[in-house]
Request: fold
Amino acid sequence: MTSKAEAMDVPDPGQTPDRLRKRVSRLLAQVSAQSDQLITAGLARLDAGKWHYAVLAALQERGPGSQAALSRRTGIYRSDMVGVLNELAERGLVERTPDPHDRRRNVVTITDRGSSRLVLLDRALDDLHEELLAPLAPAERDQFAQLLTRLLDHHAQRPPQPGQGTAGAASGKDR
Reply:
């Protein structure tokens, strides 16, 4: 019989050496993998993906933008953004119109249907985050988010080191 840890490809905490359990980088990677699985599966039940949510949220919060602007806002590679926008446009969630200042590019806008869809996805993600953060008290959740944000902000200010990949979505599997 397969344990829950084995099924999720996560080490059994009772078997993991202490020196591994003390490595923050390893813990972050494992929680990230579990979060990714949970969120991806939860959004898939709604026929959505993380990139769909990211684009809709960026448009709702920051307003219309070009494909390049949306790539910068979301961290989705420009080449992947085309496919995401095609999927969202086919569903009537976004609309593309020629940029009046530069006819070579389009301006992407969230539609009313996209705004309604975003509300549904927000509710689903709230529930999924409740599941993910279940062992933490509300104050701990806030503190955890603040600490992660501080780490991200700090490392975002540092230039990439030689041999490091760029930040962003590198594979098309989470559309």
Helices lie at 4-7, 18-21, 24-44, 50-62, 67-74, 78-90, 112-132, 138-156. The chain is about 60% helix and 10% strand. The CA atoms of residues 53 and 103 lie 27 Å apart.
